[in-house]
Design brief:
Layout lengths: L4 H18 L3 H11 L5 H16 L1 H11 L9 H16 L5 H14 L6 H13 L1 H7 L8 E2 L5 E2 L3 H4 L4 H11 L1 H12 L4 E5 L6 H10 L3 E4 L6 E5 L8 H4 L3 E3 L2 H8 L8 E4 L6 H9 L5 E6 L2 H14 L4 E5 L13 E7 L14 H4 L2 H18 L3 E11 L8 H10 L2 E3 L19 E4 L9 E8 L5
Parallel strand pairs: 7-8, 7-10, 8-9, 10-11
Antiparallel strand pairs: 1-2, 3-5, 3-6, 4-5, 11-14, 12-14, 13-14
Helix pairs in contact: 1-2, 1-3, 1-5, 3-5, 4-5, 5-6, 5-7, 6-7, 10-11
Length: about 475
Amino acid sequence: MTIDRTDSRELTLDILTEILEKGAYSHVVLRQALSKYQYLPKQDRAFITRVTEGTLEHLIGIDWILDRYSKTKVKKMKPLIRTILRMSVYQILYMDRVPDAAACNEAVKLAARRRFSGLKGFVNGILRTIAREKELLLAAFSLDGEHMGMDGTGETVHVPLSVRCSIPDWLFSMWTEGAGREQVLEMAKAFLQEHPTMVRCNTSLAPMEKIGESLAEQGVHWEFSAYSEKVLLLTDHDYLEGLDAFQKGWLQAEDLSCVLAMEGAPLKAGDYVIDVCAAPGGKSLHMAEELKGTGMVEARDLTWQKIRLIEENIRRTGFSNIRTKVMDARILDEGAVEKADILLADLPCSGLGVIGKKPDIKLHMTPDQMEGLVRLQREILSTVWQYVKPGGTLVYSTCTIHRAENQDNVEWFLENYPFERTDLTGRFGPLVQDRSLKEGWMQFLPGRYPCDGFFVAVLKRVEASA
């Protein structure tokens, strides 16, 4: 069964409505929709994915444009019309293979089918005006220099930098104050780029040659990451779960930053590892593979739903030296005190480092929420440090770019608990260089490195005095 492009747009409209109007998580809604409509042609699934993710990535800029060209401001529009316009502006500005006329016409048809025939002229007029001034808008939104131009009325178009970066003002200011304008621009460009799928290879289950052959047989283009011989970059595939190599457990979805972070842990044969916030289990599985059948990894998380995600991955890979446990990381487990050679504390965080994959994070996150997350992280750390043996290691990590959740938490932890820094120089390979490595931590930044924004600190528990 196949559907035409119009139906693809209708599905995209429903997905975006769930995300933008009902607050659903983009990666969850999109994954569920693509799973439900697996029978769709690859090009339709790709269209749905790109328009959904692209609209969210550029939403701040798109809304700025709509407010400029519409007498009815975005916040005052009917939700369905607002969503139709947003996804259509994305197609006009950023999808070269979609003719502008088609984007306009299909938007009008969508409005009519959803019983808004009276607003067809409104939709058509705005979109055709934007299409006429497309080149001007693309120049004005460029991140390469200060671009502006004259619109059809002779008015100068100047777009604020935070809008061009599609980053909320408060977040743009916070990052600029901490990292500088040029670094934020690098990050913004990286967030807005299309990225290959990153996977870690379980070479204990299949050699690289066999994994590569399996991918090639399914028409997948792949190449090695320059930063890790176990990380592959995949393109030209439909969805990861449909690959034979994934189904056999040879591949695990894991960003380069996470792979490097785990390789920074001083793991040795026979170690006992506790991962206190493990779902969906990528880091736990990484540790289990590196232990080569020895030791044990205990993967914990708060609910059975999260534990089931981990167990699905365990069944798929077949590793025997990993087990699961439902546990609230804020509550002390007396039976685990001083049991872990390595404790993984990849804690709940604001997720600002993965905006490139989950762009709706920047639309929903607030400074107050981030302050609450800092308190939660410290509450968890104040409990789980006790599981580390004297001389053992605590690996603290987040997928965010926020000093209070990262460096400040490390400083607070070292001031209050019996741990010391670990020199990480050389731990992440020759291509990762930063002065912070000697201080025991690393902040991976998109644009500077080809990965998510990710923070990791490796801390050693002080040996008990004689």
